[in-house]
Design brief:
By secondary structure, this protein is mainly α. It has 2 domains: 162 residues, Cytochrome Bc1 Complex, Chain D, domain 2, CATH 1.10.760; 168 residues, Cytochrome Bc1 Complex, Chain D, domain 2. It has 15 helices and 4 strands. The strands form 2 sheets. It has a two-stranded antiparallel ribbon. A two-stranded antiparallel ribbon has the order 3-4. Helix 1 packs across helix 9 and helix 2 packs antiparallel against helix 6.
């Protein structure tokens, strides 16, 4: 019996991952639950425990992984004292039960300043070739973290020259942090520094891995998809719905980097969300890569996010302007969004910069229901409750 086209595509990219795994000395591709991947780029003894079809993550030489550093980073990630006014942590906008998003249309900073964009998931962020929605230059977590910490437009964590030392003093006054910093940075006489804070949080974020959804279990042969989920998978990876063009990697996006990467592609896409007045414009300040290049062809181009855990990461799009996953499917089936009134009125379906893959698709209500069923198989419930990624202060308080 011939496999459906979509299943051939799934088999092809899974086999490709297994081949890649062999090339970079990964173990267990093809049926085991996990594989232990040595981080050959460091001498710290760190090993990745990953699904067998996940490649070894890329880690900067300047910040090798250690268990002690990642654990320190977990405490710092959840610590509100790291913000200028002591009210907000990294975790305030990246909540574990929401796959490290916040459920808001756009996030709010520690001073109440509204962020213009929707908080992205941190699940598998270690594999993202670029970070944030539309900045091709931010390619490491260490560099990206400077924006939420020290940025002023918008203010997120609210760290500035007037409170930097005070915040470090808060950490030093906590008797638990001295030993944690010492273990993470042995040999440093005064390890409580901003550079070490950033490195530790980055290390923790690289451990936020998602690869145990129902779909992953299906690939490993340990569970089956029901008929609706199977039909949805066929649509997703097939030419009818064409979702796979931007979401076919093991991480269900199209910007991937890992230890074995030789060529890294970083596409950005205009999906026809806006077309103000028929001019191709997107509303300020969310104008995509155009904000950096000032090239009209880059107007409205944003990174395609991973669809892993998409069931719990709404609202959707770069500005959170689509509330539900069902509406997202309707948007793509329509080939863009037609806004008929208000300041953003315009037919996004006719945006001159719209990606060639975004076209009207004849999806029935049953097709959309099947696609939704498949997308829900990408939810990794282990990620959402994993105590190794959870708030350590809540555990200390006995909550």
């Amino acid at each position: 019996m011939h496999k459906p086209h979509s299943l051939r595509r799934v088999a092809a990219w899974t086999a490709a991952l297994c081949g890649l795994a062999g090339a970079i000395a990964l173990a267990g591709c093809g049926g085991g639950d996990t594989a232990v991947h040595d981080d050959s780029g460091s001498s710290t003894g760190w090993s990745w425990v990953l699904p067998s079809f996940f490649p070894t993550p890329k880690v900067p030489d300047s910040n090798p992984m250690t268990a002690e550093k990642a654990e320190l980073g977990r405490f710092l990630f959840y610590d509100r004292r790291l913000s200028g006014n002591g009210t907000q942590a990294c975790a305030s906008c990246h909540i574990q039960s929401k796959a490290f998003t916040d459920g808001l249309t756009t996030s709010l900073g520690s001073t109440g300043h509204a962020h213009p964009r929707n908080a992205q998931s941190l699940a598998n962020v270690v594999y993202n070739a670029t970070l944030t929605w539309a900045n091709p230059s931010l390619v490491t977590l260490e560099k990206q973290m400077e924006t939420p910490l020290f940025g002023t437009d918008p203010v997120e964590m609210g760290v500035n020259d007037n409170n930097k030392e005070e915040i470090l003093a808060r950490l030093a006054a906590d008797t638990g942090y001295g030993p944690r910093f010492a273990r993470a940075y042995p040999g440093q006489a005064a390890p409580i520094t901003w550079g070490n804070v950033i490195h530790a949080i980055s290390a923790f974020q690289r451990t936020i891995l998602s690869g145990n959804s129902k779909y992953d279990q299906y690939l490993k042969g340990s569970t089956a998809l029901n008929p609706a989920e199977q039909r949805g998978m066929n649509l997703f990876f097939g030419e009818k719905a064409e979702c796979f063009h931007c979401h076919s990697s093991f991480n269900f996006n199209d910007q991937i980097v890992h230890a074995g990467s030789r060529i890294v592609e970083t596409p950005f896409h205009n999906t026809g969300l806006y077309n103000i007045g028929g001019t191709g414009a997107f509303p300020e300040p969310n104008r995509g890569v155009y904000e950096l290049t000032q090239l009209f062809k880059d107007m409205g181009k944003f990174r395609a996010p991973s669809l892993r855990n998409v069931e719990v990461t709404g609202p959707y799009m770069h500005d959170g302007s689509i509330a539900t996953l069902e509406e997202v499917l309707q948007f793509y089936a329509a080939g863009g969004r037609n806004i008929t009134s208000g300041p953003h009125a315009g037919d996004g379906r006719a945006n001159p910069n719209k990606n060639d893959f975004i076209n009207q698709i004849a999806l029935t209500a049953d097709d959309r229901a099947d696609l939704l069923a498949f997308l829900k198989t990408l939810t990794d419930h282990e990620l959402l409750t994993n105590p190794r990624l959870a708030d350590p202060f809540a555990r200390q308080a006995g909550q």
